[in-house]
Prior knowledge:
The chain is mostly helical. 57% of the residues lie in helices and 4% in strands. A three-stranded antiparallel β-sheet has the order 3-7-6, with no helix packed on it. The chain has a two-stranded antiparallel sheet with strand order 1-2. It has a two-stranded antiparallel sheet with strand order 4-5. A hairpin with a 4-residue loop joins β4 and β5 (486-487). α3 packs parallel to α9 and α8 (121-147) runs parallel beside α11 (178-198). The longest helix is centred in the first third of the chain and has 27 residues, at 121-147. Keywords: Glycosyltransferase, Magnesium, Manganese, Membrane, Metal-binding, Transferase, Transmembrane, Transmembrane helix. Residues 30-320 form the Oligosaccharyl transferase STT3 N-terminal domain.
Amino acid sequence: MAATVLDSLPASLRSLRLKTKQQELLLRVSALALIYVLAFAVRLFSVLRYESMIHEFDPYFNYRTTLFLSEHGFSEFWNWFDSESWYPLGRVVGGTLFPGLMVTAALLHRLLRALSLAVHIREVCVLTAPFFAANTTLVAYAFGREIWDSGAGLVAAALIAICPGYISRSVAGSYDNEGVAIFALLLTFYLFVRAVNTGSLAWALASAFGYFYMVSAWGGYVFIINLLPLYVLVLLVTGRYSQRLYVAYNCTYVLGMLLAMQIRFVGFQHVQSGEHMAAMGVFFLLQVFFFLDWVKYLLNDARLFKSFLRITLTCVITVGALALGIGTASGLYFCFKRLSDATIFIVMYGLTTTIKNLTTLIRTKSKSPQTASGKATGSKAAAKVAVDQSLPFQHNAAIALLLGAFYLLSRYAMTLISSYGWCVLVEEFSPVIKEPDYLVNGEYRVAKGAAPKMLNCLMYKLCYYRFGELTTEYGKPPGYDRVRGVEIGNKDIKLEYLEEAFTTSNWIVRIYKIRMTERGSTGGV
């Protein structure tokens, strides 16, 4: 019957029958196009259900900086001193953020304006993350095709299009660094693997620029700068060294490092920070492999080459160059001597844990600055925000403590008390505040059995001030916390230096102000 239908068609239509390869190409392109549309559309729910808006505080700050960039240009943005953030210290914006997200959105906005499309910069910021998430599916397809085949590429593209974790960081309105950084991350990996497979200098250059874009967009570039040398090291120890690998890694590392240094927030960390030293070590190791390969080519005799290696290693050991890290080196030597899947795993495990511990040590040593508070509320309200403990309180200053997200009359769990542990951990270096003083059996509690310091701390008092007078649920005593299912431990809360200024009807937001004395001081706040 199918033959009868085909015979009944005009000759012009019968001639349009595609060959097998053409049919496969058409199906592949159609499937990829559907995946692209799906990746973009599934992230538009908040816009279609509610309205086009920027979500959360950090994305709003990013939008504010992007708006300044689009209105004043890159030079003004790069040297912008924002006096309204971290007042009175201010903030040098260009040197304290990753500008890749802002520059990307500003360029897209300028492109749309050049095409005579009157689009506000806010709409561009809202849709930037879904747009790059859709582009990520194309990169995933190319990456899967490079590693295996087109089928694997389509599966990879489909999975990344509907990945819940990725969707949560790339929905419309989530104008944060991850919106473009995940795209840059996968693009860098694809370009580097492509450069290794082909040995092409052009692909290596593209990989370096992809790495530069990743550095400009997100601090997660550290993952790349540690994973690539680890990958190269595995290839070296498994005897897979080649000129293709040499060209790909050296070009990506050297050019990528020089480009990354142009980001003021990164600076010279590639040559100063311990979390970047693995990449430098593999870079020098590659030079050793290249030199040995060159000597082997010149000698053109296996026996002469072994003699050269024996003499060279003897000289190096004699001068003591191998004295450092002799324990680790001996362990690696025995792993390499009996190379198998298990020993390769041990080597990989040792290297990854070393890099992880070094990164953790550096991050633990550097304490987060206390001056980074209030930037989001300040930009949202278009007002100056004072840095904690930066100015003495003045009698005529309009100073208030804004405390939000209590939800004490609801069952919503994400209250300020739920985040109390972060406040204690931020002050972990303080000789006064110690986390065990606020714990009971390893837990933060607000009931009668809570730690004395917990019941007497300022955040607890501001959260539960006058809460002991309320009956929140029938059959429960006054001061019953519906979220935690307990009766609060301190109902008789007295405030000495603060007084309640405003509380919403559902106790979601509470505002307190400084209680000034007759002499105009706070008496010790």
